[in-house]
Amino acid sequence: MARSGKAAWSRTLGPAAMLFTSYFLLADWGLQWATVPGAGSPVFPAAGVALAGLLLGGLRLWPAVFAGRMAAFFLDGRSFPMWAQCAIAAGNTIAAVGGAWILTRVHVRPALTRLRDMLALIGACVVSSAVGATIGSSTLASVIAHGFGRAPVLWLTWWAGNVMGMLVVTPLVLSWMPSEPIGRSFRWWLHLVLSTVTAGAVAWFIFGPHMPHLPLAWLIFPALMWAALAGGVRGATAAMLPSASAAVWGTTAGYGPFAPVAEHLRLVLLQQFVAVAAASTLVLAVVVDERRRSELLRENEERLRLASRAGRTGVWTWNLTTGRAFWTPEACELYGYGMGCTVDYERWIESVHPDDREQTRRKVREAVEQAQSGGSGPHSYKDEYRVTHVDGTTLWLESSGAIERKGDELVMLGVIRDITERKLAEAALHESEAHIRRVLDNLFAFVGVLDLEGTVLQCNRAPLEAANITAVDVLGKKFWDCYWWSGLPEAQARIRDAMDRAKRGEVVRFDVTARMAGNSLICVDFQLAPLRDDEGRVTHLLPSGMDITARKRAENERERLLESERAARAEAERASRLKDEFLSTVSHELRTPLTLILGWSQVLRRRANGKDQDLHKGLAVIDRNARVLSQLIEDLLDMGRFSTGKTRLEVQSVDLHDVVALVLSSVAPSAAAKHIELESISRPFPGRVCGDLNRLQQVIWNLVSNAVKFTPSGGKVEVTLDRIDDLVEITVSDTGQGIKPEFLPHVFERFRQADSSPTRVHGGLGLGLAIVKNLVELHGGTVRVTSDGEGKGATFVVRLPIEEARVSEGAEVDDVSNLGIAVRAVNDSTRRTG
């Protein structure tokens, strides 16, 4: 209690000191023109400071006014009786207190923003100054010689001086108080400065020493009107101060339009001039301010109306005491009443949806009861409810407002907003969240939300059921301490490390072991991701996991099968190598006795010399089959060399034209025996290749002999030698039995034959074409085969890189007609182009 009183005293002391100082200084300055030394000044600005100080600081500051007047007496040094000084000081104080009391009772705004405020101020100045002048002049009349005879003049001078001081100083102090916003535009400040300077200059011109005594006092009014029109009350008070100061100084010094008259009349005219100028300028200024504010208010109301219509917002007021209500057109439209509606409480409550009506009625009742039992401040009210229009349309409205006591009445003021879209959006969001929750709850995967400290905030249902626990066992706990990781220190450590990394913005993913119901262990594909806000800061962590135990088991089984397959493949490759080595060994071992058989069969045939036909015939059969067996052995040896990478080529420059001719001459007897036509077509000089002559001859011989073998009697085999860009192309085509489409991909595989049955017509091991492919690739070439199917022949194409490109000067014709078979070599340099 004592501390509260001390604080109130400290808050009062500062304003009181300011009021005392300003009143004392202005009182001392004004008393220099007093008609009676020490009292009764025709110019007394201290009265204006006293009125403004008590109006702003409160009537409790009246001792500062009294003390200031007494201090002025003390400084002046006049020998008035103490009771007279106290009476005069009391009169000045009563005048200031009375004026402030009147203005407070009529609720004057200190900023003087209304015409009624300004008129009330002028009236208070007139009345309160009369009280002070009456007390002061009566006191002076009692203490000076011939005082009562001079009392009327003293009273008039005193009263006019106080009125003038109040009209000039009080509005200046009130309007420029910091409690009211001062900031204006540059244009306003420019007008203020120019009008104030102009008013002061004009006043100096009129009341200055260089001006003859002409009646030009009216010239000040245009400058004061400019200040009032441009700056309002603040502009008028600012311009009035230098104008009044110049007029007082000039008139008291004997200058200006009032100088020619007697001194006491001169001061009366000055008082009248200043009072009329101040009153008229202030009234004009406040009217201008009111009009300006009225225009701004209309503009703001129009903006508010447009904003209310655009935002579907209405405004309403309801006087709870009288029952009168006012609704803006927008409010009426929201309730479906139509423009210009008249609504009372019962009609309004009936428009509320039946399901929300009781709740709305209760909230209004509680707000009213709170306002009736509470203090004078506003009491808030807010509610959301549905209303149903006549056409059946239902809207969601939000009504918010405040209930305030104004005098003896309770007034409720508020706004109504259409929140239908928001409610629909909230409902859709709620449904979406519920749908997501249902989806997450039915996912057999862990999905949750953690804070940055690792506390579980949310968790879906599936992992809880899998572990036979409830949300109570998880929510609010550290994630690594939950049941899933209990007894698994390695998993807990990895999760802690993942949390540290995720808080830094990383997405962490790894496989981890988790505990489920019955202490069973599963493998989880776990991921921890950061959740960021709009500014990119990590605010939460999102753990998720999927049971991948079955997948891991399948992966392990697949790995086992792959390892088994690799082992089987390695074993097969080893067996293949052993087989190749065995075939190579057997072939080498068979080669020696077979060579002896061939040699002795030839010796015996020479010695028989045709004497014994049966012997000669038998030896021929032995020789022929031994040569077939020798070729089979040589093929096996070649395949062995290919498998082991031991094939050697005797590389030289080879003319394929000669090779083809030699091969054709060697197979010509076989073709002639089957009446097969052999035809060779080549460019004059297709180019030489770099390779092994014998191996290239083996390639062409295998292709041509195969063609002859699989071509029936009367067929045709064609060998073409051509150049395609930087390649030599050898084409062997026949009209034989052809190749099945499904066997084409396997033609060049070893030991593969289209007919592998024991009763097949054509023999062989199925190595010839495999040898062709290996030899062609060793020479840097390619081989391919095409066939239109069984009975439609086949075409083999070999391409080898050219050693050098050159063309002969003339055509060459290979004539092998002396062999006695249908073999033709045709030089056709225009049939194909490279």
Do you know the CATH architecture of the largest domain?
2-Layer Sandwich
CATH homologous superfamily annotation of the largest domain: Histidine kinase-like ATPase, C-terminal domain
Which outline best applies? elongated
Q: Would you count the extended β strands for me?
A: 18
Number of domains: 6
Beta-strand fraction estimate: 15-25%
Helix/sheet category: alpha+beta
Distance between the termini: 119 Å
Alpha carbon gyration radius: 62 Å
Unreliable stretches covering 5 or more consecutive residues = 1-7, 756-763, 805-834
The percent range for helix content is 40-55%
CATH topology of the largest domain: Heat Shock Protein 90
Q: Kindly provide the name of the CATH class of the largest domain.
A: Alpha Beta
Q: What's the pLDDT, averaged over the residues?
A: 77
Q: If helices are DSSP runs of H or I spanning 4 or more residues, what is the number of helices?
A: 20
Transmembrane segments: 12-31, 43-62, 82-106, 118-144, 156-176, 188-207, 213-231, 238-256, 268-288
Main location: membrane
Protein name: histidine kinase
Catalytic activity: ATP + protein L-histidine = ADP + protein N-phospho-L-histidine
Describe this structure in words.
This protein is α+β, with helices and mostly antiparallel strands and 834 residues long. It folds into six domains: 11-181, Arp2/3 complex 21 kDa subunit ARPC3; 183-305, no CATH class; 311-424, PAS domain (Beta-Lactamase), CATH 3.30.450; 443-547, PAS domain (Beta-Lactamase, 2-Layer Sandwich); 554-636; 648-827, Histidine kinase-like ATPase, C-terminal domain (Heat Shock Protein 90), CATH 3.30.565.10. 54% of the residues lie in helices and 16% in strands. It is built from 20 helices and 18 strands. The strands form three sheets. Strands 11, 12, 13, 14, 15, 16, 17 and 18 form an eight-stranded mixed beta sheet that branches. It is elongated. The relative contact order is 0.04. Residues 551-581 form a coiled coil. It catalyses: ATP + protein L-histidine = ADP + protein N-phospho-L-histidine.
